[in-house]
Design brief:
224 residues; alpha+beta; globular
Length: 224
């Protein structure tokens, strides 16, 4: 093994050992939700690097929405999740190499009808007791224009991971002519999932297999 390969292996080993401690020491809960083996340490390192270089955006949960809708023979069922964490690494000088991560707490699912909410929490659907989280980790951006992109990634739901592609639009929400304001962006992302791919095979004669997942996410630039 030559010296360069040895150095690279040693560097990776140090990263894997130190990443959790580095993230916790950052006094920021953005990456904390992705520890304990949920996400590869090299991807977390990318988020840390983005934070250090000033192009990491934290999702503002209070002003963001993660929702879904599905058609049934009776009506359209719409719902949302109240608890989610995540962020985006977007460098205007290297935008093709952006990174996005979000973790959603399934027990926070909410709908207008209480009996539908309990049904969704049960083992036929989100199975919140055994599968408390939905995880999305991006694998790449394909920018169609300065404000539109295809966001590719992997979503893990009920222990099953599938590749997905979101249609994304990006809007700058920073207050004009206010140098002291924090930079804000609005990201809207939509995709369609087949629920049977994730083991949700109940009521297929009554409820469509296609579920529309919609996110409207406001995010603020992280400042150390």
């Amino acid at each position: 093994m030559n010296a360069i390969k040895l150095f690279r292996r040693l560097l990776l080993a140090v990263l894997l050992l130190q990443a959790p401690a580095m993230l916790m020491a950052a006094e920021d809960d953005l990456c904390e939700a992705f520890l304990d083996g949920k996400v590869d340490a090299s991807l977390l390192s990318t988020m840390l690097s983005a934070a250090e270089n000033g192009h990491l955006y934290r999702i503002d949960q209070d002003s963001s929405r993660v929702g879904f809708c599905v058609d049934s023979q009776l009506s359209r069922v719409e719902g949302s999740f109240r608890d989610f964490r995540g962020g985006l690494a977007l460098d205007s000088k290297d935008i093709d190499n952006g990174q996005a991560m979000i973790v959603i707490r399934t027990a926070s699912v909410d709908t207008d009808a209480a009996f539908i909410k309990q049904l969704l929490k049960g083992d036929s659907f989100f199975d919140v007791d055994r599968n408390p989280e939905i995880l999305f980790v991006s694998t790449g951006f394909e920018w169609i224009s300065p404000t539109e992109a295809k966001l590719q990634g992997d979503i893990t739901l009920r222990g099953v991971t599938r590749s997905v592609v979101f249609d994304v639009t990006l809007t700058d929400k920073s207050p004009a002519n206010n140098a002291g304001a924090e930079d804000k962006i609005l990201v809207k992302a939509t995709t369609t999932l087949n629920r049977t791919d994730f083991g949700m095979t109940s009521l297929t004669s009554l409820v469509s297999n296609n579920v529309r997942l919609c996110m409207s996410v406001e995010a603020t630039r992280y400042k150390s």
